[in-house]
Amino acid sequence: MIKEKFDLTGKVAIITGASKGIGESMARGMAEFGATVVVSSRKQAAVDEVAKQFQSEGLAAIGIECHVGNAEHRQALVKKVIEKYGRIDILINNAGTNPYYGPIQRMPMAAYQKTMDVNVNSAIELSNLVQPFMKAQGGGSIIHISSIEGLHPSKMMTAYNISKTALIMLGKNQAIEWGKHNIRVNMICPGYVRTKLSEALLADDATKERLEKNCALGRYATPDEMAGMAVFLASDASSYMTGSTIVNDGGLLHAPLF
Ligand SMILES: NC(=O)c1ccc[n+]([C@@H]2O[C@H](COP(=O)([O-])OP(=O)(O)OC[C@H]3O[C@@H](n4cnc5c(N)ncnc54)[C@H](OP(=O)(O)O)[C@@H]3O)[C@@H](O)[C@H]2O)c1
Fold first, then answer.
1. Considering only CA atoms, which of 55, 48, 45, 156 is closest in space to residue 111?
2. How much is the pLDDT for 26?
3. How many CB atoms lie within 10 A of CB 106?
4. CA gap 135, 121 in Å, rounded
5. What distance in angstroms lies between residue 42's CA and the mean position of ligand 1's atoms?
6. How far is the CA of 176 from the centre of ligand 1 (A)?
7. Which of 13, 67, 99, 124 makes an SS bond possible with 90, Cβ 3.0 to 4.6 Å?
8. How far is the CA of 168 from the CAs of 101, 145, 182, 243, 251, in angstroms?
9. In angstroms, rounded to a whole number, what is the distance separating the alpha carbons of residues 106 and 164?
10. Residue 135's closest CA among 185, 79, 80, 67?
């Protein structure tokens, strides 16, 4: 049955940056479809709280702290998951940061470096850590959370834009390298989603008005509106998809020129 292809029972999923926002919703979605989810972020207390909530609803979840920019944390995360469950089927590189708003000309290289470390380099390193386990299991699904900011330039987000474009090409390269091991790698590009990360941007009335006007659906997304795609890409329902980039932006990238 095609419906069964969405079932994630027996699969173990790691989601970085999952204590709130889009990551939390994607973790919930995958747990509701039967996966055991490893909720991860920088703060153990925050991920424990999410995992406890999921468990109270009958979902399978644990929380493991991991600052994705820290090599020891990344290694410990993968080691703990393998020790506890013996497998990793799904990795969602979702944790992201945007410490600098402004032009490239004035961009502090330290802010650029931090953005690349958290948004891109961590995804390279974490993928490399899980790849041998996925390969030995006969496959897996890796999902990078990019952004429409990786497809379209902005005058404000510079380092963030560059990092989100890099994630897309990272995934395409991984897809062609690891397809022979049945490891699929795909990217999701959300438009504007109401979360802590977008709070500052959406707090500006003029920006908010412009975004709402240009977005075909005339509104921002909720984090839950990103979760279905994660379930799809994690599951056998997308078994022939790899190296693809899915845009989920309410039509914002199609803003009319006239
Ligand atoms: N919101 C949007 O409009 C939007 C649009 C396009 C793409 N995105 C992308 O979607 C992803 C999630 O964003 P969001 O809006 O859901 O953000 P959010 O609500 O601010 O949540 C960010 C999550 O990442 C964790 N985190 C932050 N830095 C981390 C690090 N260095 N290591 C591990 N975890 C870290 C945070 O938890 P702790 O504080 O506990 O670590 C939190 O769980 C990001 O990659 C973002 O670029 C967002």
1. 156
2. 98
3. 8
4. 21
5. 11
6. 27
7. 13
8. 21, 9, 19, 8, 19
9. 20
10. 185
pLDDT tens profile 180-230:
999 999 999 999 999 998 888 888 888 889 888 999 999 999 999 999 999
190 Cβ inside 6 Å of ligand 1: yes
Q: Is the pTM of this model over 0.90?
A: yes
The reply to whether ligand 1 has any atom less than 6 angstroms from the CB of 111 is no
- Containing H/E element for 146? none
- Ligand 1 pocket test, pick from 14, 15, 16, 22 with the greatest ligand atom count within 8 Å of Cβ, gives 22
Is there an atom of ligand 1 within 6 Å of 94 CB? Answer: yes
* DSSP symbol at 193: B
* The one-letter amino acid at 87: R
Q: Which residues of 57-80 are buried (b: 16+ CB within 10 A; e: fewer)?
A: eebbbbbbbbbbbbeebbeebbeb
From 100, 101, 112, 160, the catalytic residue: 160
Structure tokens belonging to residue 150? 């990786």
Could you confirm whether 160 is annotated as catalytic? yes
Report phi then psi at 140, rounded to 5.
180, 175
Does residue 41 have its Cβ closer than 6 Å to ligand 1?
yes
Q: How far apart are the first and last CA of the chain?
A: 46
Q: Which domains does the chain have, with CATH numbers?
A: 2-196+223-250 (3.40.50.720)
**Can you read off the two tokens belonging to residue 252?**
């914002």
40 CA distance to ligand 1 centroid (A)?
11
Rounded Cα–Cα distance for residues 126 and 172 (Å): 16
Expressed in angstroms and rounded, the spacing between residue 219 Cα and the centre of ligand 1 is 20
